[in-house]
Amino acid sequence: MPKIKKVAIAGASGALGPHVFKALADAGFEVTVLTRSKKPGAYDLAIEVLEVDFTSMDSLTSALKDIDAVVSTVGGTAVDGQTVLIDAAVAAGVKRFIPSDFGSVSTNPKLDKLPLYSSMANIREHLQKKAAVGELSWTVLACGAFLEFVLNMPTVIDFKNHTATILDDGDNRVTSTSMPLVGTAIAAILKNFEATKNQILHISEVIWTQNQLLGFAKELQPGIKWETNKTQTSVLLKESLEQIGAGDLSMPVILKLLKATALAGDTYGGAYDVTDNELLGIKELTADGLKTLVASHLA
């Protein structure tokens, strides 16, 4: 069975990247950071940091020499560019590739043709073709909505201003996992090479609903008046697709698309009732634990 020792990470300075980097280092892997430009003091001197051109096969292949696994946590437009990174990984003899596909419903075939989701679907297809001829193996980690984003951003519940836009009836079930636990799961994937080979794995730290989060907030602060309104995810989806079709790729429109799909509950499978938590060492958060987190975010 192949043993993973050396791991390269792309996107280490993003939102998720630092958590993945720490988990890999803590698990004893030799970590190499791939970056467009080095920033003095960003990493310990013992960490190998390589400047690469992410559009160049030669640059990436050279950087990935002797690397056993690549983890990509890139975001935005860089998701499409992972094809070059995958091809370079094959050329360099990398054994495992974990793409930047850490979402709630990004692996649902119903969404493969939609903006944003199509990029991730194309990357999965590219990896599957490489694996089919034995050129490398892959793992996709579906982790739900990042718990930090759910609690810190006003998209779900605005705890600071005591407002909420309730989607559908507020009972859509959604899986979330904190970013440190995503890092833990990635390290476990690489430790369990055969058991995690060429498949989509699911982890879920907690399943929540908007009504549950709002209920916790009202219970914790009974004297606060909340302002709420309602909208339908189907309406948001239609609006976002029309706006994107008209050329509007602004962040508010992208967020509208994400809300319409990732927070639509069972419509696209946003809650994971069957998971790989045990295999990947993920401990689930209790309702009391979630309530404590909500308490820490109340104004």
From TrEMBL:
Keywords: NADP, Oxidoreductase. It comes from the Eukaryota. One of its GO terms (molecular function) is oxidoreductase activity. SUPFAM superfamilies: NAD(P)-binding Rossmann-fold domains (SSF51735). Gene3D superfamilies: NAD(P)-binding Rossmann-like Domain (3.40.50.720), UDP-galactose 4-epimerase, domain 1 (3.90.25.10). Residues 5-216 form the NmrA-like domain. InterPro entries: NAD(P)-bd_dom_sf, NmrA-like, NmrA/Isoflavone_reductase-like, PCBER-like. This is NmrA-like domain-containing protein. It comes from Talaromyces rugulosus.
